[in-house]
Amino acid sequence: MSSNFALIRNPRSRKNVNDPDNFRKEAQDYLGKWFVEPPSRESIIEAVQDMSRQEVDCIAVDGGDGTVSDVLTAIYHAYDDEALPAVAILPSGNTNLIASDVGFGQRGLSALKRLEELCENKTMRYNVRRRHALGVRWSDPARPAVLGMFHGMAAYTRAIEIAHKPAILDHFSHEMAVAITLASAFGKLIFRKTRDEWMKGEKVFMAKNQENGQEDYCFLFLSTTLNQLTKSIWPFWNEKEGGIHYLKVKDHPPHLLAASAALLTGRSPAWLRKNRHYDSGTAHQITLKMSHDFVLDGEVMESGADGITHLFSGPLFDFIQA
């Protein structure tokens, strides 16, 4: 394995557009060819393939959730499962949900210096958090699987589309954009026309762990392989280690405001767990059939011609901690 590490930096990420501490030059001087600023997803794939051939054992990612997802996907297709590189996440994007659980803990020059120390002392994997990636596979074999860490659909897709509007995305910090998105989403539930449209949900077939599934209308679906989210938000219960945590909320859920308040503060009271409109647990594989788009790590994706996607518990990654 290489004794050095590579750094993939997204120059278009919010916190990378300006470079006040001359990070780019410092990283380039230290890493040489292993400092990469890919202009496209295809360029990320090519860069990671080169890293695999040279047995690079650690890849730092300086970007947001979308960039992390692209890099994990490229690693999945380029490296053997038994020789996966460790990953260090330096959060700098519009959404940095993944870093709230497995981020490096530093960014900028301090992160670069710390990575240099770990590399020189050969202690890159001395302190890591291990998480499975969340994989998405389409029924079309010609479409390659992708990896991420957080998946959502139905009302979540609608909310993300609000957040991605230029009026929000280009003018507010990530935290403020999240607040505005939540306010806008709840606003849609106040007015009767949009409330009825959102509350009726989307028709979704869901099957867990190759069991017989069922089709019904879904107001909200979330899934992740992370162990914590930003702040105290944790909308899951009945969790088990090593799988996909999921939450499914059926159409026209009762007590929605009370349920939201509880889940946004990491609580799942008994009345919520017993309500048939709210279902949460852990699975190693989830098959979904739907006619609408879904979201993976902030990126809106099509569900394919037949609407069938398979969520699976992907490879186990070492995420380096500073």
From TrEMBL:
Keywords recorded for this protein, A-Z: Kinase, Transferase
Domain of life, per lineage: Bacteria
SUPFAM superfamilies: NAD kinase/diacylglycerol kinase-like
Gene3D superfamilies associated with the record: Probable inorganic polyphosphate/atp-NAD kinase, domain 1 (3.40.50.10330)
DAGKc domain ranges (all copies): 45-135
Region (Disordered): 1-21
Signal sequence annotation: none
InterPro entries assigned: ATP-NAD_kinase_N, Diacylglycerol_kinase_cat_dom, NAD/diacylglycerol_kinase_sf
A Pfam family the protein falls into: DAGK_cat
Identification of the protein by name: Diacylglycerol kinase catalytic domain protein
Lineage: Bacteria, Pseudomonadati, Pseudomonadota, Alphaproteobacteria, Acetobacterales
